[in-house]
Write a structure and sequence with these properties.
Blueprint: E1 10-15, E2 18-23, E3 25-27, E4 30-34, H1 35-42, E5 45-48, E6 54-58, E7 61-65, E8 71-74, E9 77-80, E10 86-88, E11 91-95, H2 98-103, E12 111-114, E13 119-122, E14 129-136, E15 140-148, E16 153-158, E17 161-166, E18 172-173, E19 187-193, E20 197-202, E21 206-216, E22 219-228, H3 229-232, E23 260-265, H4 282-301, E24 304-307, H5 317-326, E25 331-338, E26 348-353, H6 357-363, E27 365-371, E28 377-383, H7 393-407, E29 413-421, H8 424-427, E30 433-440, H9 444-450, H10 453-476
Parallel strand pairs: 1-13, 14-18, 23-24, 23-25, 25-30, 26-29
Antiparallel strand pairs: 1-2, 3-4, 4-11, 5-6, 6-7, 7-8, 8-9, 10-11, 12-13, 14-15, 15-22, 16-17, 17-20, 19-20, 21-22, 26-30, 27-28
Helix pairs in contact: 4-10, 7-10
Length: 482
């Protein structure tokens, strides 16, 4: 069978007048477009001067390009391009970035080049960027749809599909928005329906869903918890009244003492962390587990969960703890994977912050009197930033002990499974905090295990149950985690 020729790349131009394609030419590893194509699209005038320069004019404004130079003059201001103009037969080609760096500053309407999507938005057209993520949680699952900038979303069920309609003119979304899933998955896949609708194909075990929306900075986040038919089925006794079905976990009332949890997926971006024996990366595995944990805790316990990073980017250590402190989190969990020079080393472990005895005995705080607004003064305690955890070591250790008990029969553990160490990511946390090492990626068998759905679901289930036990323990004593 002969293979189909690869489709030539093109840039999609989207405006109020509709959509059209602009051919892209590859010169080396750079993407170029033809100047004469831009002439017809943007009403430009192009002229090659006798001294070799190329002038591109629009309503009296001029861009000057020089062959073999990556600098251009835009209305007298120099800008840089990733490559100089290139000649192809009788046509001049310019890098795609010419549109955003040279043409956009002098054009009448906004030009928004999204190179990664090969999309150019012309004028005031609402085209939010959309990402779709699917987290399987065993008997349930969660779809997370991020829309940037924010757009109103409505979710409805139509036969064997969920339909998400966004208040936008079009969507900047990968195609397909979600890769095909396993045949028995609660969600089979998703597709984009023009102009601004995402249709999710449901699996045979689907029983119901619950959708929530939440603004996150400039993003609108749509979270859809998908429930399984098998997880809701209960055997009935002849002659007995039917059992009252449980409410979906997300509808349960959260404890007043654990309202917010911060989960910290370690590393990210250029900091890849540990590399596994078969090339797995710590930053990817811990993000996958953290996403699953966030979805499970929020859907089952109704507790707000913040991730210090939602994607593959680097977050400084101090900023990770600051996210927890600034959002008044009641629990901080940092997730990592381990490495050893001995390939046979295996097992998950937990760490609690360690300090000098004097710090834990109160040297971490200083007292003082400060003036009040109405006159007079009052006593306050100031806690040094890098010693904030000293007030919470006992409760941090209590949570680590609970988590160790729950992990014991589910995943391999080191001996001892709980240790104390002066870890910077924990020292500044002003709430109970632990660091969870999933295991050793340098052990090829454990690397494969950590990447598996079964292992990750076991860890997530343990985390959910640990939060419940921790919450109930400190609720029953009449005190919160503060």
């Amino acid at each position: 069978m002969s293979s189909q020729p690869a489709q030539a790349p093109s840039l999609t131009l989207l405006s109020r007048d509709g959509k059209r394609q602009l051919a892209i030419a590859m010169v080396g590893d750079q993407e170029f477009v033809a100047l004469d194509d831009l002439v017809s699209t943007f009403q430009l005038t192009v002229h090659q001067e006798s001294f070799g320069a190329i002038t591109v004019s629009y309503k009296g404004r001029t861009i000057i390009l020089t062959p073999e130079q990556s600098l251009a003059s835009v209305a007298g201001r120099l800008i840089s391009l990733p490559a100089p103009p290139s000649r192809s037969g009788q046509r001049w080609l310019v890098p795609v970035e010419f549109i955003s760096r040279a043409l956009a500053p002098m054009y009448d309407v906004p030009l928004d080049l999204r190179k990664a999507s090969r999309l150019l938005v012309i004028g005031e057209v609402r085209v939010p960027r959309v990402t779709v993520r699917y987290d399987s949680l065993g008997a349930s699952a969660r779809l997370t749809i991020d829309v940037t900038p924010r757009a109103t979303a409505t979710v409805s069920q139509e036969s064997e599909t969920l339909t998400i309609r966004l208040d936008a003119d079009a969507l900047d979304v990968a195609s397909p928005p979600l890769p095909a899933q396993a045949p028995q998955s609660l969600v089979q896949g998703a597709r984009l329906v023009e102009p601004a609708t995402i249709v999710v194909q449901l699996g045979p075990r689907f029983a119901g869903f619950k959708a929530t929306t939440e603004p996150v900075d400039t993003t609108m986040r749509v979270e859809i918890d998908v429930l399984s038919a098998t997880s809701e089925a209960t055997p009935s006794t002849p002659g007995a009244a039917p059992a009252t079905p449980d409410l979906p976990p997300a509808l349960t009332t959260p404890s007043s003492h654990v309202r917010t949890i911060t989960i910290d997926p370690g590393h990210g971006g250029n900091d890849e962390g540990v590399h596994g024996a078969n090339s797995a990366k710590e930053k990817d595995l811990v993000l996958a587990v953290s996403r699953r944990a966030k979805a499970a805790i929020e859907s089952r316990l109704g507790v707000r969960v913040l991730l210090t990073r939602e994607d593959d980017r680097n977050v400084p250590i101090d900023e990770r703890t600051a996210i927890a402190n600034n959002n008044k989190a009641d629990l901080f969990i940092s997730v990592h994977a381990n490495a050893s020079l001995r390939p046979a080393t295996t097992g998950a472990s937990m760490f609690v912050a360690a300090f000098a005895k004097t710090a834990e005995q109160g040297a971490a705080t200083i007292g003082g009197r400060v003036p009040t607004f109405g006159g007079g003064s009052r006593e306050i305690d100031l806690v040094f930033w890098d010693l904030a955890q000293t007030q919470h070591v006992a409760q941090s250790t209590a949570f680590a002990n609970i988590l160790e008990q729950l992990l014991h029969d589910r995943v391999p553990l080191t001996t001892p499974p709980i240790e104390r160490a002066p870890l910077r990511v924990l020292e500044s946390a002003n709430m109970p905090a632990v660091l969870l090492e999933l295991g050793y990626l340098t052990n090829a068998d454990q690397e494969k295990l950590i990447a598996s759905d079964a292992f990750q679901n076991a860890v997530v289930s343990s985390l959910v149950e640990a939060v419940v036990r921790f919450r109930d323990t400190f609720s029953s004593t009449g005190g919160g985690t503060r």
